[in-house]
Specification:
two-stranded antiparallel ribbon; Rossmann fold; hydrolase; 512 residues; 17 strands; single chain; 2 domains
């Protein structure tokens, strides 16, 4: 089970004020979270209000255009079959206020984990504010945030949703079973119910609707696409998968081993560990060669197992070594099946570094150079360093959401039920049933947890007939799991989102 997100010379961003507004945002009357009740001894208990919100008004400049919007930060209930409140989900909703919203697109955004909040894409990708990082995505101080000139708020309203036990979302009552929330299919069911509530409360039934998910969030939104159609009669215009999981599509051990090689090659190319004949090529000119070798030679070779003769095995291992930067002997010792953990430890071992799981551009230092896996995920530590202060500062100071509850970047969702994951097939069915529905997949070449070539493989297996390919698009970026943290990729990926949102609004009736 995936438990995490997930996502030379350095140019630094300066910290600026977010909005062209007075120092304190204008606050509309709204239900506030219940204050803690004082006890006689002076202590206080935290009281969670599952249905509370605060509204503030702001402006942001996006691509040179001034955009006025309101931000609603709050909680909205999850009810059981008898109408009893069993949880309250924290959300942040941005609605543009200087346009007619009758046909305005709505984007519903989730991150992954499965136990992580929506913070990552919220203040790193699509929202109206952007955390303070350098041009490659590394943390800088002082912590802070500024306007996001690449936000998609100019073309669509956005709601960021924190599932149970992430962000400020909490279960209501000690007797509520966790099985209501913590599992592939339970997660999809209660979130679909919640989306129905949100869409009804904010009068968005007439809007073109899009789901975007990152990492485990791609499993989530793939299942939601079908659940919303089947159980809520809510038909979507688009689904965006950022750094997708396998979506329940079985690889088998041999296929899984082979599919890693293109990611290995991209990472080795980035760290300049390849021979000149490969290193001098552009990355996107080099990778198709590796992909062809993977599908046409490596995959059949690994599938042969012990039937593969020694000479053929050495030939395959030699080419794998040339593409991956790994020693040929190490590949042979592992029977052509090199784990990602070993790759992250081995590639830069002689330089004294490990490389990151979610973004192989990041380096770590282990206690010992020996071993078969890194001591820690260098990139995740860096991201938590960068994201945690700004989201707490922003929600409290700019959106005026006051609470003593901690904001869970990661929360406990254990035990998580991964059984009966049919989300890839769910998404295929939703696409087949709904002629309006389009799919966009975005992948970082240096993502080792949800690698780009596995994302391509998922699309091939999800649509084996090729009949849906006109509504499916894939794009790769020269960064990792959270490819948007790199300044150049933030601009190009949000450009692509804008185009996708606009192109998925139909000009004709929904029919084949």
């Amino acid at each position: 089970m995936i438990r995490t997100l997930l996502c030379g010379c350095v140019a630094f961003f300066s910290v600026t004020t977010i909005h062209a507004q007075p120092a304190k945002p204008k606050t509309e009357p709204a239900k506030q979270e219940k204050p803690a009740e004082e006890k006689k001894n002076g202590s206080a208990d935290l009281n969670f209000n599952p249905d509370a919100a605060v509204t503030t008004n702001h402006t942001v400049t996006i691509r040179g255009q001034k955009v006025a919007y309101k931000a609603i930060a709050g909680t909205l209930p999850v009810w059981d079959e008898e109408g009893k409140t069993i949880a309250g989900l924290f959300y942040t909703y941005y609605e543009r206020t200087d346009v007619n919203k009758a046909n305005r697109p709505l984007v519903i955004s989730f991150n992954g984990g499965p136990g992580t909040a929506s913070v990552w894409m919220h203040i790193g990708y699509t929202g109206p504010v952007l955390l303070n990082i350098d041009d490659e995505g590394y943390p800088v101080q002082p912590y802070g945030y500024k306007e996001n000139p690449n936000s998609i708020l100019d073309v669509a309203d956005i709601v960021y949703v924190d599932p149970v036990n992430t962000g400020y979302s909490r279960i209501v009552g000690k007797d509520v079973p966790k099985t209501k929330f913590f599992g592939v299919n339970a997660d999809i069911k209660y979130l679909a119910d919640w989306i129905n509530t949100f869409v009804s409360r904010y009068n968005r039934w007439g809007s073109p609707k899009y789901l975007i998910g990152e990492s485990y969030g791609t499993t989530r939104v793939s299942g939601l696409a079908m659940e919303l159609q089947q159980s809520h009669w809510m038909y979507l215009n688009g689904v965006v998968l950022v750094s997708p999981t396998t979506l329940g599509i079985d690889r088998g051990s041999a296929t899984g081993a082979a599919l890693r090689l293109p990611y290995f090659a991209a990472t080795a190319w980035y760290h300049k560990k390849l021979a000149a004949e490969y290193q001098q090529k552009d990355l996107e000119a080099f990778l198709p060669e590796v992909e062809q070798f993977t599908m046409n030679q490596l995959l059949p070779a690994i599938n042969k197992g012990g039937l593969l003769d020694d000479a053929a095995k050495r030939t395959i291992a030699k080419q794998m070594a040339a593409y991956s930067g790994l020693p040929e002997q190490l590949i042979l010792q592992n029977n052509l099946d090199v784990s990602t953990n070993l790759f992250w430890k081995e590639l830069l071992r002689s330089d004294g570094y490990t490389i990151g799981r979610l973004d192989s551009r990041y380096k770590g230092i282990d206690k010992r150079e020996a071993g078969e896996r890194p001591d820690f995920n260098a990139e995740l530590t860096s991201w938590l360093h960068a994201f945690t202060p700004p989201i707490n500062m922003y929600l409290r100071n700019e959106l005026n959401y006051k609470t003593d509850y901690p904001y869970y970047m990661f929360g406990s969702v254990w035990p998580w039920d991964n059984s009966n994951d049919q989300t890839g097939e769910n998404l295929r069915s939703a696409l087949a049933i709904n002629p309006y529905l389009h799919l966009l997949v975005q992948s970082g070449y240096y993502d080792g947890a949800c690698d780009y070539f596995n994302a391509k493989y998922t699309l091939w297996q999800m649509d084996p007939s090729g009949r849906l390919k006109d509504r499916i698009k894939w794009a790769g970026y020269r960064s990792g799991h959270m490819m948007y943290l790199r300044k150049d990729d933030l601009k190009s990926s949000t450009d692509q989102l804008r185009e996708f949102i606009k192109s998925a609004i139909p000009a004709k009736a929904a029919k084949y």
